[in-house]
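User: Please fill in residues for this 89-position structure.
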């Protein structure tokens, strides 16, 4: 199963709102994560090609206010943070 197939299989669409709700693991602060060796934020994976900066990673806010929603079109880019912060975890 590819990562994208895993993400699709672990979430379900909500027709009324357009949200796609994550049903898998979440981080300590409630962010949807997946992966085997370490936790990769789902939304960061889905938007990796859209925001291709090497030294910085995007920080998102959900416009629909549902932290479990992983629909990339419901995300609003609010900040960038240094990539090093990912390696610490
Ligand atoms: Zn949403």
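Assistant: Residues filled in for all 89 positions:
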């Amino acid at each position: 199963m590819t990562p994208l197939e895993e993400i699709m299989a672990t979430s379900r669409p909500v027709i009324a709102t357009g949200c796609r709700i994550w049903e898998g693991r979440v981080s300590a602060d409630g962010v949807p994560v997946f992966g085997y060796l370490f936790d990769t934020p789902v939304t960061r994976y889905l938007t990796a090609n859209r925001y291709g900066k090497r030294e910085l990673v995007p920080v998102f806010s959900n416009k629909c206010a549902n932290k479990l929603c992983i629909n990339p079109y419901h995300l609003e880019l609010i900040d960038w943070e240094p990539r090093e912060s990912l390696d610490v975890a």
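For context: The chain has a mean pLDDT of 86.
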